[in-house]
Design a protein that fits this description.
Layout: H1 10-20, H2 54-60, H3 64-74, H4 85-99, H5 110-123, H6 128-141, E1 169-171, E2 177-182, E3 186-188, H7 192-200, H8 202-207, H9 210-213, H10 228-236, H11 238-242, E4 247-253, E5 270-276, H12 281-284, E6 291-296, H13 306-322, E7 325-330, E8 335-339, E9 341-348, H14 350-357, E10 375-379, E11 384-389, E12 416-418, H15 420-435, H16 446-454, E13 464-466, E14 470-472, H17 482-493, E15 509-510, E16 515-516, H18 521-533, H19 539-551, E17 558-560, H20 571-582, E18 588-595, E19 598-605, E20 608-612, H21 622-639, E21 647-650, H22 663-676, H23 682-686, H24 696-713
Parallel strand pairs: 4-9, 9-12, 17-18, 20-21
Antiparallel strand pairs: 1-2, 3-6, 4-5, 5-6, 7-8, 10-11, 13-14, 15-16, 18-19, 19-20
Length: 714
């Protein structure tokens, strides 16, 4: 609060009062010595405006209503303070502790004494059990009327679980209990009070209704609110849907190693986090709105016993669904409402999926699609189980998940979601470990080779014994030599990437050890995407395009050039293009080309080269253009057409690539329009500059045709 006005002179104060006026709601001068009745509390000395008749002041002063409401909210009077009663009582308890002496006649308060003791505990790293004993010892030395707490909490006297009757303390190697050493530790952070605090912020309370008031509803999947699961909740429980402030949640759980010591340390700590889907997509997964609810300490993971640790969270979720939390104050609308919440699904990797869902995810029936009908085979040398085929079957349950205690859980369309980033990291780590032949990471081992031989697969890769102790594994198609591994790792170490693209890959490369390790989730995600983008066109896609061209009656006018021929612009490329062009001198040759992860279409008609670029801005493909011009000029010289020089034209009027679509489908749409244009008007139609773009329906037509052909081909 700015109090600089208190140091101003008398004339300045008089001028300010004359210009701005005096506060209309300040009738009883309680802050300037006037008497007022204090709030009925034994430990509080705060003055309250309870003696002020606000209703009478409203009749006399227009602005008194707002000031009266502020006073009521500040002192927990009336309806405006109902949402803050618990928090206000908590705050007043701290005030009471701050003013209450440790014992009668003491100069130190209860709060001051506890802060000093806790500061001493943290500074010298005193354990909880030692600190509890210290409180008991200090309490015995004080007067009998002291208020120093001497126990750890309400459950400090419990020595066994009230349900399973197992000991609270850890058992030593000799089978005896180690008193004051808990067998398992978890932390639970209640969620209801935190949900209420979210609505106390006006900006956050406004965002909690974004999914209803501001979300774009155009049929595209941009938010969980666009999913069938969301609509299923709206349909089954319309009363829940009628209140847009009701919260829809997702639960994420997985094990982490906070010590970060690689494979040597197997410590596993399990955090359970809630995400709020009422918020916009650019907020709901931000750290500010991610809510840590349960933290299960290690060193072992809870495995299928995780339901025990989720029990307090499930109890709060049941309360929020069945009863709701009444009298929650919305700071945006300034009204009260009853808050309810629903858990939509869980987000986890595949091992955690088995722990949370109760489904068997390892062994002979590990497939969650086939279930009991899984056809699996044990690989004796690798000591693993491999599934042979996939077919629909019933799920095999190992336990009943605690989530079924929630009334609505059985009606959800999707209950558990596999985290794509986790799956990508696991796959990427296995691929890198296999390519670089990293010990304990590679999947190309002697055992896997022996299992292949036993199944009658790739017998040429059978291990070969060299002497008594050594075994030679013949190189396979993906085997890298030591020189190739060094080239790969040096390339990664010297790679410079844009900010935010990935982490510093150089820190993950060990050239001397020929290892690549400690890749983050986002690194594996980007590596996988770049590998998919840079792959050569699939053979069945080329066959599809050639088949579609040949189906037309005027198919003799068209020919298709394999896009993989343009990856290396050398003599082989020139010989291939000349051979294709001589197969039909008067034909139109269609050549899709990918440069820098972007597809364009090149059309060669006699000595003319047409370029169709889906992007609106023009770009020169110098290397490819020079190679094509040189190839056509060489072909013309060989057949005696020396004076026929090739020309390059950009069809700037070709339809452009709409936002959110793949350029490859735009190029396929170009070819579809060209070979379906029997009157050959596309040159004049696309020769004039135009801003026209393909519609989503036009591109989907090509996509469905491609998918149908691939299914038939497979």
């Amino acid at each position: 609060m700015d109090k600089s006005w208190m140091r101003a002179d008398r004339d300045s104060l008089e001028g300010h009062l004359y210009e701005k006026g005096f506060s209309l709601g300040y009738v009883t001068w309680i802050w300037h010595g006037a008497s007022a009745n204090p709030r009925s509390s034994a430990a509080s000395t705060i003055l309250t405006p309870s003696s002020v008749n606000i209703e009478e002041n409203i009749k006399e002063n227009i602005g008194a209503l707002e000031v009266g409401d502020i006073c009521k909210a500040a002192y927990n009077q009336g309806n405006l303070g109902d949402d803050c009663d618990k928090d206000s009582d908590e705050f007043k308890r701290f005030l009471s502790d701050a003013e209450q002496p440790l014992f009668e006649g003491s100069d130190s308060s209860k709060l001051e004494s506890m802060l000093k003791l806790h500061n001493w505990k943290a500074r010298f790293r005193i354990s909880d059990s030692a600190f509890t004993d210290l409180l008991s010892s200090v309490g015995s030395l004080l007067l009998k009327d002291h208020v120093l707490p001497i126990n750890a909490g309400v459950n400090s006297d419990i020595v066994e679980c009230p349900k399973c009757r197992k000991s609270r303390w850890k058992l030593g190697k000799d089978g005896k209990e180690r008193v004051n050493v808990p067998a398992k530790v978890m932390w639970y952070f209640p969620i209801i009070s935190r949900f209420k605090r979210m609505f106390k912020s006006e900006s956050t309370a406004k965002l909690m209704t974004w999914h209803v008031k501001q979300r774009s509803q155009d049929g595209h999947m941009r938010h969980p609110a666009d999913s069938p699961s969301w609509r299923n909740v709206d349909y089954r429980w319309p009363t829940f849907d009628n209140e847009p402030r009701n919260i829809r949640l997702a639960l994420a759980a997985n094990g982490i190693n906070p010590h970060n010591k690689g494979l040597k340390n197997r410590y596993s700590c399990w955090p359970v986090v809630l995400a709020t889907y009422n918020l916009p997509p650019w907020f709901c997964m931000k750290r500010k709105y991610m809510m840590l609810t349960v933290l299960v300490s290690g060193p072992q993971e809870p495995s299928n016993n995780i339901d025990v640790f989720l029990q307090p969270l499930i109890d709060d979720l049941k309360k929020l669904w069945e009863e709701g939390e009444p009298n929650v104050f919305d700071a945006h609308t300034k009204f009260f409402f009853t808050l309810k919440a629903i858990l939509m699904w869980t987000i986890n990797d595949f091992p955690a999926y088995g722990n949370l869902s109760g489904c068997v995810n390892k062994g002979y029936i590990s497939c969650h699609v086939c279930g009991d009908d899984t056809v699996a085979k044990y690989l004796p040398h690798s000591k693993k189980i491999s599934s042979k085929e996939v077919k629909e079957g019933g799920l095999s349950m190992e336990k009943k998940s605690i989530f079924f205690d929630l009334e609505y859980w059985k009606f959800h369309h999707v209950r558990h979601c596999l985290d794509v980033m986790h799956v990508e990291k696991n796959v990427c780590d296995n691929l890198i470990g296999t390519l670089l032949n990293i010990r304990y990471k590679t999947k190309d081992s002697e055992g896997s080779r022996l299992d292949m031989i036993q199944m009658g697969v790739r017998k040429d890769l059978a291990p070969q014994k060299i002497g008594e102790k050594r075994t030679y594994l013949p190189p396979s198609a993906f085997t890298l030599s030591k020189t190739e591994k060094k080239k790969l790792l040096k390339s990664l170490a010297s790679m410079k990437l844009p900010y935010g693209h990935s982490s510093n890959i150089k820190n993950c490369v060990l050239i001397l050890d020929l290892k690549l390790y400690r890749l983050k989730f986002h690194d594996c995600h980007k590596n996988k995407n770049e590998a998919v983008k840079s792959r050569k066109p699939a053979k069945n896609e080329n066959v599809y395009l050639q088949t579609k061209v040949r189906k037309r009656k005027h198919s003799d006018m068209f020919a298709f050039i394999d896009p993989s021929a343009t990856f290396k612009l050398n003599d082989d490329f020139q010989n291939y293009i000349i051979a294709r062009m001589r197969s039909g001198p008067s034909r139109i040759f269609l050549l899709p080309h990918n440069e820098s992860y972007h597809w364009i279409l090149i059309m060669i008609w006699e000595s003319e080269i047409f370029i169709l670029n889906p992007l609106p801005h023009q770009k020169r493909f110098t290397a490819l253009e020079e190679a094509l011009v040189g190839t056509i000029r060489s072909d013309n010289a060989q057949i005696g057409c020396v004076n026929k020089n090739p020309t390059i034209k950009n069809l700037i009027g070709s339809p452009k690539q709409p936002g959110g679509s793949e350029c490859g489908y735009v190029v396929m749409r170009y070819m579809k329009d060209i070979y379906e244009d029997k009157e050959m008007k596309f040159l004049s139609k696309w020769g004039v500059k135009c801003r026209k773009s393909y519609t989503k329906e036009q591109l989907d037509e090509v996509w469905f045709e491609t998918l149908q052909y691939i299914q038939e081909f497979v």
